[in-house]
Amino acid sequence: MSPTTTHLRTCPLCEAMCGLRLDVADGRVTRIRPDGDDAWSHGYVCPKGATLGHLHEDPDRLRAPLVRDGSRWREVGWDEAFARCDELLAGVLARHGKQAVTAYIGNPTVHNFSLSRYVGLFIGMAGLPTLYSAGTVDQWPKNLTSQLMYGSMWAIPTPDVARTQYLMVLGGNPEASQGSLLACPDVLGQIDAIRARGGKVVVVDPRRTGTAAKADEWIPITPGTDAALLMAIVHVLFAEDRVDLGDVADLLNGVDEVRARCAPFSPEAVAATCAIPADTIRRLAREIAAAPSAAVYGRIGTCTQEFGTLASWLVDVVNVLTGNFDRPGGLMFGKPVAWSVASLPNPEHASGFTLHRWRSRVRGVPEVLGQVPLACLAEEIATPGDGQIRALITIAGNPVISAPASAALDAALPALEAMISVDNWLNETTRHAHVVLPGLSALEQPHFDDMIWLWAVRSAGKWSPAVFPPPADRPAEWEILTRLGAYCMGMRHADVDVRSVDDGFFAALVTAQGLDPATVAAHYDHGGPERLLDLQIRTGPWGDRYGERPGGLTLQSFKDRPHGIDLGPMVPRAREVVTTPSGRIELAPGYVTADLDRLRARLARRPDGLVIVSRRHLRSNNSWMHNVPVLVSGRERCTLLVHPTDAARLGLANGGRARVTSEAGQVEAPVEISTEMMPGVVSLPHGWGHDREGVRLSVAQAHPGVNNNLLAPPHLVDVPSGNAVVNGIPVSVAPVGFGA
Ligand SMILES: Nc1nc2c(c(=O)[nH]1)N[C@H]1C(S)=C(S)[C@@H](COP(=O)(O)OP(=O)(O)OC[C@H]3O[C@@H](n4cnc5c(=O)[nH]c(N)nc54)[C@H](O)[C@@H]3O)O[C@H]1N2
Ligand SMILES: Nc1nc2c(c(=O)[nH]1)N[C@H]1C(S)=C(S)[C@@H](COP(=O)(O)OP(=O)(O)OC[C@H]3O[C@@H](n4cnc5c(=O)[nH]c(N)nc54)[C@H](O)[C@@H]3O)O[C@H]1N2
Ligand code: SF4
Ligand SMILES: [Mo]
């Protein structure tokens, strides 16, 4: 036995960024505890954090590249794997051109030290005409409204939960997710604290979630109707003369336009559609306006729905109109210690931001922020003709589970001439690849979160060195991405010099910071994400600017303080963050308000009947942590939640099985009867369905669950953003025998 060593480590699994203490002996993680001294999380953790050792040791985790020969996988060396990628991509480029190549970027990209900082380089180098991501099944509506209101798609204001006196959560369940576009350890603890200091917490959700159970009030809402509720709140604010623009009053365009547009949306006009009494809506508006401070926060339930853009916009509008924007206790912009490549001005928008620059080939839907809906990918692969997709690169993604109409994608992928996956497992998607290029495990690489600090409730930073040395022959994912980017440019394997590409990338970023690349380069004898992070910190708001600001922060400052450095709560920043052409906050972007006609039509629509929504669980992480035994033990979690009155009407028994049918497909799942659901709405978690042949996830395959995206019709999108609608899908439900 070698002596036990203890390592401090930030958990990379979600936005809570918890500090952990890992005990390691004989090359294995023997214990994981919370780090009570962590400057950011102060000892908070969830059960997933304790499984980083399992993920690292998982025998199914890929440690060498795989190349497929027919239906058989062959483990190969890195040189052979890269040469095969080059050959595959060069073939497609020669036969069909760049238009036949695309990529899909999955969620773990954001949480990975090297992918998060280099995915932008890959995108820039590859120059692919189309790109897909998990973003269009997630926060695209919020990206769109932030782009139009503030001038940047990642300028997303976050609720100051630590100081607010009134928190309204719509379509988010931090009890499971631990916060999303809201980085804050222990959100539920913050909810307790709001109530303990005499404040109030309201949760608007079709399900009485674990978060709603902690709140003062749960307001069930018909899925997809948050925009109508919020518009009625805006209506009341104007009608009762409760509008107070607060500190941003002089920074606003469009207040009168909002006033004019809210007129038809009285509480009475929306009550039946939302299933919320008009009196309740009026009271909510008064409470928000009267609270000493209030933060209205909307998350995925307000995005992946029929009116995602309007709801995302109105969340911010309500905060603005009640003086709760850009001030403590309201919605505020985070202030990262280190800037993120993603938040730099987008070169594509240099001559102004435009929408609908091109349309998807098959369905003809317009691009928004450079992407079309992920649900288009299957048809772009399957439909012959000029521009047909023949090559796909997936990066940390599993769209066969996470994309709407996933059966069509599963069926289309085998037709690709080249599919390359940068992924650590053979999941439902990567099993179709020709080459799989695995990254290092989280514990084999350093960590310092990138984009997540953009919406953190405090400014802070934490450096985690690798716990285990990376195996000598293994490239990091930033090197993999750089190579793939180069092959897409038409460079051949033998000619790619990763180091010089990286030096060029770094020099460009240094120049963009107004510094001399040669002088800055002289500070380093290494490249990659660690060098980039040092630049991000040193040219960030607290940085030393390479000596120009003596005493300023550098990466070394964080290495010297392994529990992290806290730099305080959010501060008003709207004046520096807003970069719209007018220099002001656009409270009523025409592109967004144009969608109000569709919302008015919704008010006149007959009830949809039974609809389904998604949910998350604390012990899952989208589609990919079901291979950890301790996280899938216990009773089955992939169940259909049904309200008792619906169950009785439909003849469903608790523990029996139900067949759920939508226009897109059908699944069967065990029934869990619960008053957690509002009547008329059923819920199934997302991220399951591991019973596919060829998947190499031995634990997950024994707990497969079903894929709820088999029910999501590909054409259901939030029209302005193209974001998928995976909540509020009409379904019928019927029993299929007992316990079968
Ligand atoms: N019905 C429904 N569908 C949804 C949602 C919903 O709420 N309901 N949510 C949507 C949302 S918000 C998201 S973000 C997407 C998620 O969808 P995706 O991003 O497509 O899938 P994930 O399950 O997050 O992860 C994909 C894969 O990343 C790999 N991976 C994990 N860590 C690493 C790493 O460090 N490096 C590499 N290279 N690979 C790694 C794992 O093998 C995993 O299978 O799903 C969306 N789909
Ligand atoms: N444990 C765990 N943590 C995660 C993830 C995970 O899979 N597991 N995924 C991560 C990712 S990628 C993301 S994007 C975040 C998401 O984080 P959250 O946004 O907090 O996601 P959910 O927990 O799915 O909560 C969404 C809620 O929206 C409700 N809802 C559905 N439709 C509507 C509607 O029309 N209106 C309203 N008001 N509510 C609605 C659902 O009932 C559900 O309670 O979580 C992240 N964190
Ligand atoms: S809440 Fe859990 S998964 Fe998220 S960072 Fe903390 S320990 Fe990791
Ligand atoms: Mo997500």
SS class: alpha/beta
Q: How are the strands ordered across the major sheet?
A: 5-4-17-16-15-6-7
Radius of gyration from the CA trace? 25 Å
Distance between the termini: 49 Å
Helix percentage = 25-40%
**Total number of helical segments?**
27
Shape: globular
Q: Which hetero compounds are present in the coordinates?
A: ligand MGD, iron/sulfur cluster, molybdenum atom
User: How many β strands by DSSP?
Assistant: 29
Average pLDDT works out at 97
- Most strands sheet: 7 strands, mixed
Strand content: 15-25%
Plain-language structure description:
The chain is of the alpha/beta class. It contains 27 helices and 29 strands. Strands 5-4-17-16-15-6-7 form a seven-stranded mixed sheet, with helices on one face. The chain has a four-stranded parallel sheet with strand order 11-10-9-13. The radius of gyration is 25 Å and the shape is globular. The mean pLDDT is 97. The structure holds ligand MGD (2 copies), iron/sulfur cluster and molybdenum atom. The site of one ligand MGD has 37 residues, from helix 5, helix 12 and strand 21.
